[in-house]
UniProtKB/TrEMBL annotation:
Superkingdom, taxonomy of origin: Bacteria
Taxonomic lineage: Bacteria, Bacillati, Actinomycetota, Actinomycetes, Pseudonocardiales
A Pfam family: GntR
Protein name in UniProt: GntR family transcriptional regulator
Keywords attached to this entry: DNA-binding, Transcription, Transcription regulation
Any GO molecular function: DNA-binding transcription factor activity
Domain HTH gntR-type: 8-76
GO biological process, one term: negative regulation of DNA-templated transcription
CDD domains named among the record's database cross-references: WHTH_GntR
KW Plastid (keyword) present: no
Length: 247
């Protein structure tokens, strides 16, 4: 039904319940969590569901696991980086990063767009191109495509309005959608490649076409339905973005 918000996954709800319990001191920083059977019983959930939430908590650095000790609540919040879905302007610095719009247009989908988004060739999609400046220096080129408006409206009509309103605002598509519906369970999948800037993008940055860059391609989805396809172009010298890894 159009406008109906997808329900949050049970594991996400459970994850947030545990985080809330940590925040209010039920499980203080540095303490060891109860055993799986005890924790599952106190939360009223199954052990498989609890185990999935605990894995996510460990991956996000909220808890750590040590042999012979168990699961321990981390002493401080994990540093959030690209593994946490956030607008690029937030990752590069809320106070110092500024989005400079270059293009706000509606166009026919390219082969690249149709590779990542479920859009028919006959529809039109929104395309935004922006530069993110940090302390006045261009550090990231952002190219974003959305699914067609009918598909966005089927998730939440507010998303279409957010993009309509956002054409005149200095922020990215992801920022616009996340702000329009803060409860929307968005997730992202990204690939990272190394390449060079190229002539057209070199003109944007006023740098040599041979400048090495990190190219991040990201697909943002809600309940496995892709909504956005984005390319982030970060030339050499751009500020670092934390990416945590865990075993």
């Amino acid at each position: 039904m159009a406008g109906r918000r997808p329900q949050r996954r049970p594991v996400v709800e459970l994850y947030e319940r545990i985080v809330d319990a940590i925040r209010v001191g039920t499980y203080p920083a540095g303490s060891t969590l109860p055993s799986e059977p005890e924790l599952a019983s106190s939360l009223g959930v199954s052990r498989p569901a609890l185990r999935e939430a605990l894995i996510l908590l460990q991956e996000d650095g909220v808890i750590t696991v040590r042999r012979g000790v168990g699961r321990t609540v981390s002493d401080g919040p994990a540093r959030r980086g690209f593994e946490r879905l956030q607008p690029i302007e937030s990752l590069l610095g809320v106070d110092t990063a500024k989005v400079r719009p270059l293009v706000r247009d509606i166009e026919e989908p390219t082969d690249l767009v149709m590779q990542h988004l479920p859009v028919p060739a006959s529809c039109e999609v929104r395309f935004w191109e922006s530069v993110v400046d940090v302390e006045g220096v261009a550090v990231c080129l952002v190219e974003e495509w959305s699914v067609h408006d009918e598909a966005l409206a089927a998730v939440d009509p507010a998303l279409v309005q957010a993009l309509e309103d956002g054409t005149a605002q200095p922020h990215t598509m992801l920022h616009a959608l996340a702000s329009a519906d803060p409860g929307l369970p968005l997730s992202g999948a990204s690939t990272v490649t190394a390449t060079v800037l190229g002539r057209r993008r070199g003109l944007t940055f006023e740098r040599s076409p041979d400048t090495p860059v990190v190219l991040i391609t990201q697909v943002v989805s809600v309940d496995r339905m892709p909504l956005l396809a984005t390319k982030y172009v970060l030339p050499s010298g751009a500020p670092g973005i934390a990416v945590r890894q865990s075993r």
